[in-house]
Amino acid sequence: MTSIDTKPPYGQWFKSSYSGDASGNCVEACRQPGAIHIRDTKCKDEAGAPVLGFTATAWSRFALYIGGNR
To answer: What is the number of other CB atoms lying within 10 angstroms of the CB of residue 68?
Structure first.
């Protein structure tokens, strides 16, 4: 597994297309060269809120897996 830097600044965050407005169960993503960062929308303004970081390769494999292309 490759570790990536998850320290700010991250860049432009966008809400997942699968997140709804009513449920409050939303995640946001931020693309950077070679990396994807994910955070919980409800916690985005909290100092020190957790952010998950993935290499672009790891994220692509994860997305393919959950999309059914195993």
So the answer is: 6
Alpha helices in the chain (DSSP H): 56-66
Q: Which residue has the tokens 């390769």?
A: 57
Q: Is the pTM of this model over 0.85?
A: no
Q: How far apart are CA 65 and CA 59, in angstroms?
A: 10
pLDDT in tens, 10-54: 678 888 776 666 666 788 888 888 899 998 888 878 888 888 999
Residue 23 per-residue DSSP state = S
Domain boundaries, the chain: 13-66
